[in-house]
Design a protein that fits this description.
heterodimer; A: about 70 residues; alpha+beta; three-stranded antiparallel sheet; 1 helix; B: mainly beta; Neuraminidase; five-stranded mixed sheet; 3 helices
């Protein structure tokens, strides 16, 4: 039982590590980093990336991507 | 005795059927797809544009609006020679300068109007004059207008950012004259404020004064709405297979999800043309996407699908000369963005 729990924990940790490393290699380096802006700093944070045509909520820029955390 | 009753029932049924036909909901299925290749690149020399986004053309003049212009938002060229004439609509915080440019429109009086959403102002320029001749402060109740068309020569129509209506007709002084329509939501979550829906349903507009039709294409999802503005009626709502705009509700805002839908729309005399991107935000996050759309969907004036053009370029904005069968588009991925494609008349 303990072994099974341990295996599950390891799988979950491994999945988290893989997910984090994937997220860090999303190719953001090719985007225009001058346009990175932070949204509200409350419970919900998001940011706008790139030079695009999506109206970034709360800020006054146009971005390629509005991400949500 | 029974005849008047039957007559009344028949008349009532006829009335109801007519009313139903006035608002059709059509699902996009194009009977024909036609590939189009660029036949002419209109070369520009000496002008750098960071993100050419909107294009307007007359017989002798072409305007390109740069959404991310570092110094000027608008550039004017002779057409078809593409000889540079001038740049105007200077970016800045000084008098007569603009913080932002959402769209550019040409009036019948040869004026050039540019919407500055950040300053909530319409800016009017005369031909050959670089300074603003008129600034119109927009009604504060509008919150943030992200597109516009000129209506009846002196009025403006803007999308409604409050979410309580679909669009607003503005008086020449920028105040709201009338609000019309509703976001065609199939289901509304009452815990999500109206402005959030307005953000998600952000639409690009075009209006044709000869047909009286206002066409709206959503930037997220795949929905087109056609309104008869003089007749004050909704003509059609057209859903593509991607359906309604998808978003996440976070921090009081609509965070785009699903797909980038439409990027521009043109209301012609014969048809309505909509530039469709169709890139998923999933692919955009993975940097597996390209800016612009390569599909122009064509609808008749009732909103019925006619055909779809498949372009060999990805463009961000376009205009159409229906008489001569020419699409002039902006390829933001190219150093020479102004391209032309030929369509059948």
């Amino acid at each position: 039982m303990k072994t099974k729990s341990g295996i599950i924990m390891c799988i979950l940790m491994l999945a988290s590590i893989i997910n984090m490393s994937f997220a860090s290699s999303q190719g953001y380096s090719s985007l225009d980093l001058e346009n990175i802006e932070m949204l509200s700093s409350g419970e919900n944070n998001g940011f706008c990336l790139g030079t695009g045509s999506v109206d970034c909520p709360k800020t006054s820029i146009k971005a390629i991507l509005v991400a949500y955390y | 005795m029974k005849s008047p009753v039957y007559l009344f029932i028949v008349l009532e049924l006829s009335f109801c059927l007519t009313a139903c036909r006035q608002r059709e909901t059509v699902f996009i299925d194009f009977p024909e797809s036609e590939p189009l290749s660029v036949f002419e690149v209109r070369r520009i020399e000496g002008v750098y544009m960071r993100y050419p986004f909107r294009i307007r053309k007359t017989d002798s003049c072409l305007y390109v609006m740069d959404l991310h212009g570092s110094e000027y938002f608008c550039h004017e060229f002779d057409y078809p020679s593409m000889n540079y004439r001038r740049s105007f609509a200077k970016r800045g915080r000084g008098p007569g300068e603009l913080s932002d440019a959402e769209n550019i429109r040409l009036s019948h009086q040869a004026e050039v109007w540019i919407l500055d959403a950040n300053n909530a102002q319409m800016n009017g320029f005369h031909a050959n004059v670089d300074s603003v001749f008129r600034k119109i402060a927009l009604d504060k109740r509008l919150i943030r207008s992200l597109d516009f068309v000129i209506y009846q020569d002196s009025l403006f129509i803007v999308p409604d950012y409050t979410g309580t209506h679909r669009f607003d007709i503005l008086s020449p002084d920028g105040t709201v004259k009338e609000s019309r329509g509703y976001i065609p939501l199939k289901k509304r979550n009452k815990d999500i404020p109206d402005p959030v829906y307005a953000q998600a349903w952000r639409g690009f507009l075009d209006y044709n004064p000869e047909t009286g039709l206002l066409a709206i294409a959503t930037q997220l999802g795949e929905v087109i709405e056609i309104y008869d503005v003089p007749g004050d009626s909704l003509v059609s709502v057209i859903y593509g297979k991607e359906g309604e705009p998808r978003f996440q509700y976070g921090g009081g805002y609509a965070i785009p999800d699903g797909i980038m839908g439409y990027g521009d729309i043109f209301a012609g005399k014969e048809n309505i043309y909509a530039l469709f991107w169709g890139h998923s935000f999933k692919n955009i996050r993975r940097n597996q996407s390209i800016e612009g759309g390569n599909r122009i969907q064509v609808f008749d004036l009732k909103g019925h699908p006619v055909k779809q053009y498949l372009l060999d370029r990805y463009i961000t904005g376009f205009c159409i000369d229906e008489e001569h069968g020419i699409i002039t588009g902006l390829d933001v991925n190219s150093d020479q963005p102004v391209v032309e494609l030929r369509i059948e008349n």
